[in-house]
Amino acid sequence: MEHVSLMDMLPEREGIVPSGSSGGTLERKCIGLFAGKCARCGKHFEYYGEQHRYRIKNRGERRELIFCSYGCMRACERELEREKQAQEAKRAKRAAARIAQIEAMMRDPIWKTLTPGKRSTLINTLGNCREFLQDYAEKYGEEKE
Asked: For residues 70 and 28, is the Cβ–Cβ distance under 8 A?
């Protein structure tokens, strides 16, 4: 049996390593060191693979976003938080409209003609909408009802 040293296992030249499912490539500078581009400012920098702390797994992206600094990462996080708050504000507006619609149905004489299952579903929806609005108000300090 022939013994192989660790140095014999190293590549003779720099290798190209695939980067996730996006199809892009990262240039490997040396073992474990990669060259990357900041997702926020576009700066080219080097980092150590999985040990690099300035990264975000964004649900909308297929890959992790890599950043050159904490400042770039936080700026992107704040932007994502603003987008999430805007989406929740739209959802709160729809929930408030749904509450008004269901409460109007409950005052209408047609409410008694609905099947018990349909009434139960509407009452559950009403409770869920109220709960969401309460959580929204606690989280963002606004009342949307």
From this structure: no
pTM over 0.70? The answer is: no
Helix or strand or coil: residue 88? helix
Contact (CB, 8 A) for 122 and 102: yes
pLDDT at res. 62: 74
E-state strands within the chain: 16-18, 25-30, 33-37, 44-48, 55-57, 64-66
Q: Which residues contact 47 (CB under 8 A, 6 or more apart)?
A: 33, 34, 36, 66
Separation CA 125–CA 46 (nearest Å): 51
What confidence score (pLDDT) does residue 57 get?
83
Quote the pLDDT of residue 144: 47
